Amino acid sequence: MMSTNHGTAALKVALVAGASRGIGADTAKAFAAAGYAVALGARDSRALRDVAGEIEGAGGRAVAAAIDVGDDDSMRSFVALAVDAFGRLDAAFNNAADGPMPAPLAEIDPDEFDVGIRTNVRGTFLGMRHQIPAMLDSGGGAIVNMASVAGVRAMTNLAAYVAAKAAIIGLTEVAALDYADGGIRVNVVAPGPILTHHLQRAGAEAQRLAGQSVPMGRIGTTREVADVVLWLCSEQSSFVTGATVPIDGGQLAGNKPPQMYRQGEGMAPTRAPTAT
Concatenated DSSP letters for 135-170? Predict the structure, then answer.
């Protein structure tokens, strides 16, 4: 466990699990820029130090801990870190993810499937299990869980991922109902293709194809996800709970073929792009 700031007075306090890079890191920075003190958790302690250092370098306040989201004691200690350091907990973003590489269902190793369920589903459950009592003690709060468009509409070769993200949506809805009259709002975001480090490493062609699958014709940014998470944790969304919010450029709205046919008329073939 590491602490990068020992102050205790803060207007609001946010916790981010899965904060070492990508969406989690950018959301933690966005919370800090909005005036929150932030508790950061992930497996990669070195990357966490870098994120915490950026937050403090910009004038924010942060504590950080290496955590295992699938371990009950680890998540209890992580929430306690935030409360001990800053006195309360107002917002939480459960963002950690893991699982097998894409493959047809019958080719997925059961142990790797279990990793996906443990990190995504159990990790989200354990996060909320300890965040909710801390928020009740603080007078209320807001939790945002990370799902995916794949949790709403299945995608091939992603059995563990789809199952886990669908389960997270269900957990979110139950938690929202359980604490709707307790001052705690619980929502879930469902991003489509986002330019995370995974898609960056996949290269330009993977990014181009991902953008083609989006009605808006592009992939999203990690900051666009962070902005929605912050909105869901703000008073501007004070009557929103139990919602699944797509951040997908229109993917879940339906299909947008590149060219439509007219009844009774032929369609000219689409020209392939010429080489340059």
Answer: HHHHT-EEEEEE--GGGTS--TTBHHHHHHHHHHHH
